[in-house]
Every structure is written in structure tokens, then in C-alpha cells.
Specification:
Length: about 290
């Protein structure tokens, strides 16, 4: 099982995450809080109340964890393709896999990475939703969680070990098909602009990676909203009875538009993050090729 894809996935995931975290913080707040009138209102209030640091809340943890999740995603994807087509990453330019194989490998990677992602994503969402400024006015209550480790311990103590996997089923439904779409979109766009047998140019990789991110997030956004709400439910004691109950009650209370909250910011974030992720992944593997 080639290891370099896992290492390249780790590094490229960390690079993409740092670039995209501020967008992600705005998205999570729009999805789970009703105090913001939109993206700009959320950004202005966050900056005024918490300074630039407010956009990077909850990032220390994902740097290591989401990078690891990306490592699992790309490593499982590439090794599933190796199992399906008996071709390595380098050989696939000369012997491109079918889109069915690419979709299958992407779904497999998407399914497996969920069970690494779930606890880290839960902690990230909980920390991102803490809107207290770092320099708190005297007498104001401290944030519930002091940091990612305290958040993890608190969830474990208050909600039990299964509490750390709150939202995992919604994540599975969100990520499995959409990561198949992610890799198919990337491969299809690369092949449209690259001669047979050639490596795609840096510009092609950037554009294909960016649009792969947008395509997958556009399809994933409705379940992304449900996932974030299920993850926050444990805190607010507003227990949903599951994905379907959360979907129905959210639609009843806020209309179908609720399922597309965060789509614009998701797409704005997805292009640069995934352009950088795929470019660094491709060029690390080529340099090690
Ligand atoms: C499957 N889903 C659409 C949720 C994510 C697909 C892109 C994942 C990428 N690491 C990013 O952070 O954008």
C-alpha cells in the first residue's frame, strides 16, 4: 500500500485548511445561529467582537486532525483505485481509470474518512460557535469550552463516548456520495484540458481542484446544515431524534431555504481550498514520483 499518497494528503490537507478556515467559521455560524443577517453581517460582527482571531477559532485542532482526515481520504482513494485498476498514481495518466472506478474509490475514501473526521469536526463546530471575545468584559461568563481538549473531555463526560460521534451518520450521508463527485469532477476537468498520457498543468490542476470542491460542497450543503445542527443539539439540549427529524423540524420552522444556508460561503471557500489541496497533492507525488 503506497504510503506517499497518505503523506501528500496530510500536507495538502493542512495547506488547504489554513486557507479556508475563516470561511468555514462564518459558514458554521450562519448554519447554527440565527443572529446574523448574512455573510457580511457575520464577518463584520465577528471581526468587531472578536478581531481577526475570531475567524480562526477552532483551527488549532483541525490543522492536525483535518490534515490526517485528508490523508486518509486521498490515501484510501488512491489505494482503492490501485486495487480496482492495478495502476499506481503515476501510471494513471497513461492508463486513466474509468469514471465508475474513480467514483467508487472516492465514495470509499469518503466513507472511511468520516470515522476519523466525526469527533474532530464536532469539536471544531462547538468551538466555532463560541462567540465570546477573547478579551471578555469583567463579569461576563467565560466560554463553555476552554479549548479543543477541554471540549473533547467535556463532551465525553457529559454526553458519553458516543457523544464524540454526534452527527457521524449525517456526515456519512454527506461525504460518501459527494466525495465520489469530488474526484470524478476533478478527473473529468483535468482530462478535458490535458492531452492523453500527459500530466495536467498547474493551472489545470488548480481550476479542476477548485471546481471539484465547489461541485461537492454544492451537493453536500443541505446535509452539512443538518450535520452542524445535530452536533450543536447536544449542547443546547434540543435533542433531535435523528437526521430525518432534524431535516423535518428545520424545514417546518425555517423553510426549505435553511438547507442552503452557507452554500455561498461554502463555494467561496471551496475553490481556493481545494485548488491548493489538489495542486500540493499532485506536485508532492510528482516530486516523489
Ligand atoms: C465532502 N465535502 C463536500 C463535505 C467536502 C469535500 C471537500 C473536502 C475538502 N478538504 C474541503 O475542506 O473543502
Amino acid at each position: 500500500m503506497p504510503v506517499e499518497e497518505f503523506v501528500a494528503g496530510w500536507i495538502s490537507g493542512a495547506l488547504g485548511l489554513v486557507l479556508g478556515h475563516p470561511f468555514d467559521t462564518v459558514k458554521v455560524r450562519l448554519q447554527t445561529q440565527t443572529t446574523y443577517r448574512g455573510i457580511i453581517d457575520c464577518m463584520v460582527k465577528t471581526y468587531r467582537h472578536e478581531s481577526l482571531l475570531g475567524f480562526f477559532k477552532g483551527m488549532s485542532f483541525p490543522i492536525a486532525s483535518i490534515a490526517m482526515v485528508n490523508s486518509v481520504l486521498f490515501g484510501v482513494y488512491s489505494n482503492t483505485l490501485l486495487a480496482l485498476t492495478a495502476t499506481s498514481h503515476q501510471e494513471r495518466r497513461a492508463q486513466p481509470p474509468s469514471y465508475i472506478h474513480v467514483f467508487t474509490a472516492g465514495c470509499t475514501g469518503g466513507f472511511v474518512q468520516v470515522y476519523c473526521l466525526a469527533p474532530f469536526d464536532l469539536i471544531k463546530v462547538r468551538l466555532q460557535n463560541q462567540t465570546e471575545p477573547r478579551a471578555r468584559p469583567p463579569g461576563s461568563p467565560p466560554p463553555r469550552y476552554r479549548g479543543p481538549v477541554h471540549c473533547a473531555v467535556s463532551i465525553f463526560q457529559e454526553e458519553g463516548p458516543r457523544g464524540l460521534f454526534r452527527g457521524a451518520w449525517a456526515l456519512t450521508l454527506r461525504d460518501t456520495p459527494t466525495l465520489g463527485i469530488y474526484f470524478v469532477t476533478y478527473e473529468w476537468l483535468c482530462r478535458q484540458s490535458t492531452r492523453d498520457g500527459q500530466d495536467p498543468s498547474p493551472a489545470t490542476v488548480l481550476v479542476a481542484g477548485g471546481f471539484a470542491g465547489i461541485a461537492s460542497w454544492a451537493v453536500a450543503t443541505p446535509l452539512d446544515v443538518i450535520k452542524s445542527r445535530l452536533q450543536m443539539a447536544g449542547l443546547k439540549r434540543r435533542a433531535y431524534r435523528g437526521v430525518l427529524d432534524c431535516m423535518v423540524s428545520s424545514a417546518r420552522q425555517e423553510g426549505l431555504g435553511v438547507f442552503f444556508r452557507g452554500l455561498t460561503i461554502n463555494s467561496a471557500r471551496a475553490f481556493p481550498v481545494n485548488a491548493v489541496t489538489f495542486l500540493s497533492y499532485e506536485y508532492l507525488l510528482r516530486s516523489w514520483g
